[in-house]
Specification:
This protein is mainly beta. Helices cover 15% and strands 38% of the residues. The chain has two domains: 50 residues, 2,3-Dihydroxybiphenyl 1,2-Dioxygenase, domain 1; 87 residues, 2,3-Dihydroxybiphenyl 1,2-Dioxygenase, domain 1, CATH 3.10.180. Strands 1-4-3-2 form a four-stranded mixed β-sheet, covered by helices on one side. The chain has a four-stranded mixed β-sheet with strand order 5-8-7-6, covered by helices on one side.
Length: 170
């Protein structure tokens, strides 16, 4: 199981919980990807719509099939895990499912020392799963660009992580 899913009961649901809605170009491909990534089936599937209700992390995420509205340029989404061991388990599970697009161990990105890996959904939405070690007073020079906010996301074509530019941030 990549991201832990717990059954919803009055005692285990964590509030507030975040809700995200993403447009997707192919709902079936998205359901296949997110069912593997979240290690659970969607809670609801309707024509052109699917919704996952996750307890860990506490998140409701829905997908609306609308190819004309799909956008990947908002940055990225991600989950912070509690321990390095948890990250290693999730990385191993993601590798088994052939979801991993990039691994970064011991990187300094966004002014923090982190271990992380990345996956991309069928529409190119990038997800980061990471363990935060400590704040850093510098950003890896590989990620720095003068005149821009610094935020790293993987560049799948180049196989390296590059900073986001303009007004994006971590």
């Amino acid at each position: 199981m990549l991201l832990t899913h717990k059954s919803t009961t009055m005692n285990t649901t964590v509030f507030p919980r975040m809700h995200v809605s993403l447009y997707v170009s192919d709902l079936e491909k998205s359901i296949n990807f997110y069912s593997a990534f979240f290690a659970t089936a969607p809670a609801k599937v309707k024509p052109g719509y699917a919704k996952y209700v996750l307890e860990s992390p506490s998140l409701i995420i829905s997908f609306v099939e609308n190819q004309d509205r799909v956008r990947q340029n908002f940055g990225h989404l991600g989950f912070q895990v509690e321990t390095v061991e948890e990250l290693n388990i999730k990385l191993w599970e993601a590798r088994k499912k052939e979801l991993v697009s990039k691994e970064e161990i011991g990187t300094t990105c966004c002014y923090a020392k982190q271990d992380k890996f990345w996956v991309s959904d069928p529409d190119g939405v990038q997800w980061e799963v990471y363990y935060f070690h400590a704040d850093a007073e510098f950003n890896d020079p590989h990620y720095e660009m003068s005149g821009s906010s610094v935020c790293c996301t993987p560049n799948e074509n180049a196989g390296v992580t590059e900073p986001k530019t303009e007004n994006s941030c971590c």
